[in-house]
Amino acid sequence: MYISLMTSPRAELFRRFTRSVFAAQSALLKHADAANARFGQSSARWRVLRQISVGETSVADIARSTGYSRQAVQRLADALVAEGSARYSVDDTDRRKQRLELTEAGAAVFEQLEAHFDEWADRLVAHITERELARVSEVLDHIRFVVEADRDYIERKEQ
User: Fold this and answer.
1) Model pTM above 0.70
2) Alpha-carbon span 71 to 48, nearest angstrom
């Protein structure tokens, strides 16, 4: 049996916020998975393709920017290489490292995903004002900054 502990109204408000953020993230990922299925891609593969396209070429860099684990990115990268959407090459600055780059086929798939994103983003933004979306983005960026600063505080305190 679960016994609810009393929490402050501020803690309850933050709990509601976190549930809303996690639910929104889940809905977005499921939507992207459904939208990208016609191209044989998932939202995770799309994010990795995007990071490669903007010049993040190492598995570690992609993991840092996406929030995925290094192991998850490695599996996604290996799958993209196996299907011919990406390839590994030696990093000129450190021959022990491998760089990822899009193949011609990968670039074509990525362009299709991006064009399709524009379509479904326009459809979704028809129900959310641009002002609302911009404001929510600003607030989420601020909240991320506050949370990351608190995480840093906790990590320093525990050392």
Assistant:
1) yes
2) 13
The position carrying tokens 């506050």 is 146
Q: Where are the domains of the chain?
A: 38-127
CATH class of 38-127: mainly alpha
CB 111 within 8 A of CB 62: no
- Residues 112-150: tens digit of each pLDDT: 999 999 999 999 999 999 999 999 999 999 999 999 999
Which long-range contacts (C-beta less than 8 Å, at least 24 apart) are formed by 95-104? 97/58, 98/58, 98/59, 99/57, 99/58, 100/52, 100/57, 100/58, 100/59, 100/62, 101/52, 101/57, 102/49, 102/52, 102/53
pLDDT for the residue 59 = 94
Instruction: Give backbone dihedrals phi and psi of 103, rounded to 5 degrees, phi first.
Output: -85, 175
- SS3 assignment, position 87: strand
| Residue 133, number of CB atoms within 10 A of its CB | 13
C-alpha–C-alpha distance, residues 109 and 35, integer Å: 13
How many residues appear in the chain? 159
Using CA atoms, how far apart are residues 103 and 108, in angstroms rounded to an integer? 8
